[in-house]
Amino acid sequence: MVSVRSVFVALTILSMDLRISQARPHVTLNEQSIVDYHQQWMTQFSRVYKDESEKEMRLKVFKKNLKFIENFNNMGNQSYTLGVNEFTDWKTEEFLATHTGLRVNVTSLSELFNKTKPSRNWNMSDIDMEDESKDWRDEGAVTPVKYQGACPEFPTKQIRRNSLVGKQYTKLLGVLSDWGDEGLTKISGKNLLTLSEQQLIDCDIEKNGGCNGGEFEEAFKYIIKNGGVSLETEYPYQVKKESCRANARRAPHTQIRGFQMVPSHNERALLEAVRRQPVSVLIDARADSFGHYKGGVYAGLDCGTDVNHAVTIVGYGTMSGLNYWVLKNSWGESWGENGYMRIRRDVEWPQGMCGIAQVAAYPVF
């Protein structure tokens, strides 16, 4: 029989302040404490199931993911930890199908870079890769973390109350606030603006298919062709694709004359770019350890280099001898370090950790 004290201790460790953030190392949960923990987690994230059958199924998924988190954290001697978030009752394949899926042809992007007139000289011989740090959040050049939603509608309709309505559609390339143009607007001496990703979902339809993923460079091309993009307050996010508004062309707030691809397989070039502004990159987000990341410097051995998700590098630094990038994601603040990740920088393989050094770009004003 499970004692009241054992349940209380487990719940206290795992849900302090009702901010269920992570399974602590060396915590072993029994069956009843997991059930109670799941119920409290449901309250925290306003999770509602359609019936008891679905709840039972989701509890099994929750247990499986919790065990994965617990086993990893109990190993110790890792540079990062895993923890629960609002997606802990999702199967891996469900989450990847609804929160990733960018289409990218690395070869064609390399060809595009070769045709693009470089805006800077990529001579990195004078760059000191050691003891460097930069965080564009400290400069006020990074907008708040958002939750991109799911694409398509999640079959169990597990949506957060008061934040997502109707069908869940992915915001093209994650969210526009994950791109370099907002940060560069601030860096250029203007006020930090939150731009409209909905305009891109509705209007950038030639190659980017709304809920069908998107091609990295096409959205930048649309902004150039359109002469800018509206503010989010003028063209708010609707969580689904709608008709392109006629006035979208009459409210340009970010005008860019082109975009610059960062040389691939070159973290020195990437460092130079991030020293000057946030940079959009593509990564491989398929690893279970990536989805359950909670804190520290991520170095998942299960992370590949077949990129499928867009994030933004907003800084870099060093912790305990490990160089890292600071990534801004679009999966909400319950994921990672309040929506951010520190990920290994300067690894031995040229693609970078999770393929981060393969595809990177930023706008040129």
Automatic annotation (TrEMBL):
Q: Where is the Cathepsin propeptide inhibitor domain positioned along the sequence?
A: 38-95
Superkingdom to which the source organism belongs: Eukaryota
Q: Which residues form the Peptidase C1A papain C-terminal domain?
A: 130-364
What SMART domains does the annotation carry?
Answer: Inhibitor_I29 (SM00848), Pept_C1 (SM00645)
Keyword match Disulfide bond:
yes
Q: Please give one Gene Ontology molecular function term for this protein.
A: cysteine-type peptidase activity
Tell me the leader sequence span: 1-23
Question: Which controlled-vocabulary keywords does the entry list?
Answer: Disulfide bond, Hydrolase, Protease, Signal, Thiol protease
Q: Which GO BP terms sit in this record? A: proteolysis
Q: Does the keyword Disulfide bond apply?
A: yes
Give the family, as the similarity comment puts it.
Answer: Belongs to the peptidase C1 family.
List the protein's name. Answer: Putative cysteine proteinase
User: Which species is this record about?
Assistant: Arabidopsis thaliana (Mouse-ear cress)
